[in-house]
Amino acid sequence: MIQAGYAAVSITPHTGAMLDGFIARLGSSAGVDLPLMARALWLESAQARALIVGLDLLGLSQETADRIVGQLATDLTLPPGQVILSCSHTHSGPMTVRLRGLGEADEAYLARLEQDVRRASAEAESVKRPVWLAWATAPISVGINRRAFVAGRGIVLGQNPDGPADTMVRLARLEGGSMCADLFVHAVHPYCLGADSNLISPDLFGHAAHHLRGKGHAPLYLNGCAGDIAPKQGFCGPDAAREEGARLAEAVLAAHETARPDEAPDLRVASATVALPYDTMPALEVLEHELDRADRTVRDEERCDPRIVERLRNAGRQWLSELRGAFASGSLPPVLGRVSVVALGRGALVVLPGENFFATGQRIAARLGADPTCVAAYGHGYIGYVPTPVAYAQGGYEVDDAHRYVGWWRLSPQASAILEETAVRLWQQTGGKLL
């Protein structure tokens, strides 16, 4: 027997707050497209308990995530490893992660966020009830691989219809009494609202939840391994987010129609934190020379604005200065990533840290003997991109440029394999079988 409880609270910042995600966005927020939410799902069986919290945010620092998890673990008498945080990675939320060239995290907002998340989580636990569980999938495609090859320029952020992308939504349906909770996972970068928008928004995922809420459902979405997946209607604005969100919600509703009940569902949870190695770093003099070349962070039309160009230059100079300081102090701080696995009935939820490429999620799903395996990313603390090994030879923004804005240096090409093997080990630890 599974019990579940659900709660949601608004975590919308005040209008005028700076928005995270785009170094090319100029100015502070000017309005609200749709409120941002913290959604909490409590799961409990005779064997285990778990709390899953989905946040309409770009990400959280390791320190903030650790602090929130510690608070929730104390509040709810849970082992910290059974508290799982995941951000949707909206690019139209408040400054919750420091990005060089853009600004610092909004500490006042984060203090309020912690209280809001604690309130939602406590409410979810307090309203738990027996539920029946059903798993399903349905076809949907709102994203496209964004690593496009252009002659003379190499890999750029564009559209690559031949690259891997998500083509389905995965759904765990939890229903009991008056509650019908939908935990669903799909992989896409949520930036239908681009850098030219100053609206606070959860983007397409939030619009999908709004659509489902209107149908009487209690939605909780987790973004998948979307590090190399862009929305097909990227930079098209709020109407595009609303349209794509409605399409995603209709796919969730279609999955409802084919959901197969799990006759004797069980719940088991396992988490582990691993240290991820850095890639080999060239001499600082080489890195300094590379700052003179145009990176692939912004679109060509945005690069014409001298204010944006100066932001990019400042970010590069700040990164190099901080890198020199780190080496002067000894060595680069370690990159710690937390992996969580929830075995729920015949299905599995894997939550990875960072911006993993879609192929990593595919590899994990192909190894775990679950039906289905849902692989989410952007879990716990934000650690930047985790490309697949083949991407390193190709280059591009995720490999060559992104670390200038967050973190220190790119991760090793083996980092994705380390996360994969950790997920497999944790799955086996829960009693799961491999394919």
Notes on the structure:
- It is a single chain.
- It is built from ten helices and 21 strands.
- The longest helix has 24 residues.
- The mean pLDDT is 96.
- Helix 1 packs parallel to helix 2.
- It is of the alpha/beta class.
- It is globular and about 60 Å long.
- It has one domain.
- The strands form six sheets. Strands 1, 3, 4, 5, 6, 10, 11, 13 and 15 form a nine-stranded mixed β-sheet that branches. Strands 16-17-18-20 form a four-stranded mixed β-sheet.
Note the beta-strand portion. Answer: 25-35%
The largest pleated sheet is described as: 9 strands, mixed
| Arithmetic mean of pLDDT | 96
Apparent shape: globular
The number of domains is 1
What is the number of strand segments?
21
Descriptive tags:
27% strand, globular, 435 residues, alpha/beta
List the helices and strands and how they pair.
Blueprint: E1 2-10, E2 31-32, E3 37-44, E4 49-55, H1 62-76, E5 83-87, H2 107-126, E6 129-139, E7 143-145, E8 147-150, E9 154-157, E10 168-176, E11 179-186, E12 199-200, H3 203-214, E13 218-223, E14 229-231, H4 238-258, E15 260-261, E16 267-276, H5 284-290, H6 306-329, E17 335-344, E18 347-351, E19 355-356, H7 358-367, E20 373-376, E21 385-386, H8 389-394, H9 397-400, H10 415-429
Parallel strand pairs: 2-12, 4-5, 11-13, 18-20, 19-21
Antiparallel strand pairs: 1-3, 1-6, 3-4, 6-10, 6-15, 7-14, 8-9, 10-11, 16-17, 17-18
Helix pairs in contact: 1-2, 3-4, 7-10
